[in-house]
Design brief:
By secondary structure, the protein is mostly helical. It has a domain at 2-60: Alpha Horseshoe (Serine Threonine Protein Phosphatase 5, Tetratricopeptide repeat), CATH 1.25.40. Helix content is 56%, strand content 0%. It has helices spanning 2-16, 20-33, 38-50, 54-60. Helix 1 (2-16) packs antiparallel against helix 2 (20-33). The chain is flat. The N and C termini lie far apart (37 Å).
């Protein structure tokens, strides 16, 4: 899981620099190591939306029955946010 967390951080930094295609690849790699990590799933879906890949994004978004809470831990998930300005 440490490797998935490192990839998640790399993807986050790439997304902040508006390098969305590279960020998407990092999140794909991270999900290979931790496919049940809901923040990773959500971040991957969001970056696909930003890249106009709606089919992939809708397949990735978690369903309402899935939760971000793991093992009784009620801490909110860390999700990335950044401003994208397209010119």
């Amino acid at each position: 899981m440490l490797y998935a967390a490192t990839l998640d951080l790399n993807a986050y930094q790439l997304a902040r620099k508006d390098q969305l295609k590279l960020a998407r690849e990092e999140w794909k790699k991270a999900l290979q190591f931790d496919p049940e990590n809901q923040p990773l799933v959500q971040n991957s879906a969001i970056v696909n939306l930003l890249l106009d890949d709606y089919d992939t994004a809708t397949k990735e978004f978690p369903t309402p029955s899935r939760t971000l809470v793991r093992d009784g831990d009620a801490k909110p998930a860390r999700l990335w946010t950044f401003s994208t300005t397209r010119q």
